[in-house]
Each structure stands twice: as C-alpha cells, then as structure tokens.
Amino acid sequence: MTILSLATLDRVPPAVARPAYDPRSVGTGIVHLGIGAFHRAHQAIYTDDALAQKGGAWGICGVSLRSPDVRDRMTPQDGLYTAVEKSPAGMQRRIIGSVREVLFLSTERKMVDARLADRATKIVTLTVTEKGYCHDPATGRLNIDHPDIVHDLVQLHEPASVVGLLVSALEARRHDGAGPLTIICCDNLPHNGRVLRGLVATFTQARDGALAAWIEKNTSFPSTMVDRIVPATTAADISDNDAALGMHDAAPVVFEPFKQWVIEDAFVTPRPGWEVSGAEFVADVVPFEAMKLRLLNASHSAFAYLGFLAGHEYIYQVAAQPDFVAFMRRFMNEEVTPTLQIPAGIDVGAYRDALVRRFANPALPHRTQQIAMDGSQKLPQRLLATARDNLAAGRPMPLLALAIAGWMRYVAGRDEAGRAIKVDDPLAAQFAAIADAHRDDPPGLARALFGVRAIFGDDLVRDPRFSEPVTGWLAALHAEGAARTVASAVASAAVNSVSRNH
Ligand code: CS2
User: What is the pTM of this model?
Assistant: First the structure.
C-alpha cells in the first residue's frame, strides 16, 4: 500500500485538506520534547495554521523521549500525518505538515543536541506528562533523589531527565552564542512555566552559578493552559483512516473539535502567528489553568476512577449515566467554582455545560484507564488544591472526597469483581505494598495512602474535615460499589448528611 509522504501528498483525496504551504520549504524553529498524540493534535495544528497564514521558519523537530515508536512511524512519512477531528456531527481529516523531523533521543542524541543548540531554534515546547519533570507533585520542587536527576547532576553528558536535557542545551547555547530561547511547558501542571523555570534553576544552581545567571537573562518560560481531548490512537483509527486516505498513515491522531491554548505573553524570541489558529496571549494564565485543571481534569479523574470501578471502559459511557452527570455538575458548581477566579469574558456556566457535552462525545472513545494513569502526579493540582481552598473557606466537599476515595479504591489494585487492575503510576509499587497490608480494611488503607506525602503533603490529612469523608466514602465504595455510592452521594439527602457531619 502507498504510504503517506511528501512524494504521495498530492494523491490524497480532495476531501482531506492538505497543508496550504510547501512543507519542504519550511525551516525548523521549534524543538518539541515528547511528540505524543497530544502535541500532534494541539500545538502542531496551531503551528500548521500559523505556517499557512503567517509563514516563518517554524517547522517542528519532534523528539521522542521514551520509545522510538513515533519516530519509526513518522520518519518514513516525512513527518506528515492525518489529524482526524471527530464529533457526533461527523469527521474531518486534514494532513498536517508542521512536523518536519522526528528524532528518538536515545539513538539520535547528537542530532537532538544540535537542534536544541541551533541558532535557528527559538522555541522549545514540551509535553512530557506530569511525571516527566522529576518533581515532587505536592510541592512542585525538583526531586533531587529522583534517579535521573541524581544521574544528571553528576554526569550531564548524556542527560537522563528532561530538566538535564534542557540545562545541557542551554549550556551549549551559552557556549556557542546561539541566543535566547523561549521554553513552553504544555503539560497539565499549575503554573507550569514557573514550575519548569524553578526546576531548571534549582538544577543549574547546583552545577554552575554563571550558567544560572545566563539562563535568567536569556530564557523565558511562559505558562500555558492547553486543552483538547485526545484519546490514544487505536488500530481501528489507523485502518479507518487508511481507507479514507487510500494510502497508509501509521501516525494519525483523533480528537474532539474543541481546542484552546492560552499562553502567557512572555517571549524572549519571535514566535509563530499562533493567534491565527485561536491561541490567546494573556498577562496571567493562572486563572485559566486553575479553571481547566479543577473543572475539566478533576472531573475527568473522578470519572476515570469511579467510572472504571462502576464497570465503564470509556468516559462517554460514564457521561451517559445520569448519576455521574449529576455528580459532575454538583461537584463543579458547588465544590470547585467557588474556589475559582473566573477570567474576564468567560461564562463559567457555559464552560461547565460544554465540559459535560465534551465528555459525552460518543464519537471519541476515551478509556477511563488512560486517564486513571499517574494519579499520584495528577491529584494535587486536580483535586487537592481545591480541597485546600475549600477547607480554608469552611466549605464542605463531599463529592471531591468521594473522587479521592475512588482513586484509593482504584490504586488498591482490585476491581469490584475482585480482578486485578493494572495500576500505571510511578508510585504503583508503593500502592501495591500498602494495599497488601490493608486488604479489607478501608480505614487502614485510607490512613496509609494519606501518608504518601509526595501526594498529600502533610497539612490535608491532619484535617478531619478532609480525611473523615474520604475514609467514609472508601468504606462505602467497598460495601456498595461505585455506581450505588455515586447515586447516593448525589441524592441531596446524602450530600447534606455528609456536609452536616463536618
Ligand atoms: C486527561 C487529559 O489523561 C488525562 O489525565 O484528563 O489528558 C485531558 O484529556 C486533557 O487535559 C484535555 O485537555
């Protein structure tokens, strides 16, 4: 079968849009670390639009950090791939040309280093997932005991961590006079630019004070809020797309119509005209990030744990259960929205309604287990920051507590039929040991999990207004199962009685 590539691009059927520029002529100005589906469905599309309408040497060199898979799929295709937008209203395909090169770090380290140190490279973007930063999720500080950081602090020649890779690139740029760099974290972390800048600064200070001063002057780390639901591409997505294309594309991405990118306007370099694709440049991203993390991502995690336990493989199935929808609405309205500063011009009611609709999109099966992954890295910004604000305001949060209990029930590693759950988390071994010690003992399980300071810090668990409802719901989940517990939680009597107790 013919393979999608620059040489075959003109044979793509007319219904599939093609880049409105010649990808061959685009120079590389961006290095992206972590070229998974999300990047290709989000920043690469903004860049594709910017190239089409504003031009510039803004091709992307995508770097795969952990596996050669994306490189192996995309290199034979000259970096081209299909972007498939799916909604109940239908499907739209277009070929994206902004990714001009894909490298695999382990085997193409020299080329990655050269790209990062190249004068033509002005921007580095990152989607390396929450755990990719080697930080302590509870505090946002560099985890200097992380094996990759320990390695890189001693031996920066072949860095193992993303922070080490950035610092070694900045060292080379300083040495070569390659000029400033704007570094844009696109992961779902609060204050993501500030956090990354802090990690880089801590790491650099431990090595070289002069470099730290250069970095301070020659880099910026704009914070960003990124949003688009992008489930992992499946084999069926690939074969459906091949049929539509009449040729083989090994690397399509599927996603919802909605997209949003809010970027702190703090660039030390030129940038692509991302605004043509809808990117918003603002002075302060924090209220946007908080709104997205605490409404969308928090509800996603709650649906992932409780929905999985209730037997649902996909988010849209959870979002088709009236009790879960009621859960999501009450959680967002009563327990999250009061903690937010709503950015000017945003209608938060419409935003929440849109989230309920987005989750329900049946055209886009998004596995609950995909979202359940790496909870230790996600809970702090999605649920626990809200919990702290609610405690400070004296506001009850029964549904948030139930979501945490759902996470505990999930990481204990057995579903409601007693089958093993594959818990995918950097702390999975610790969770398994805790679960073994507290089988059939929900209060003991809750106590032991609360003791994981990298997640909970040590303030929350000292407050019975937090720990007691979580423990109570965990017992209910064991006794009644998730579907019935969610149903009784959203029945107002249950909500009120929990609130009254605290
Ligand atoms: C999801 C996010 O996997 C997850 O944890 O909550 O990837 C979510 O789909 C995106 O943040 C939406 O923008």
Answer: 0.96
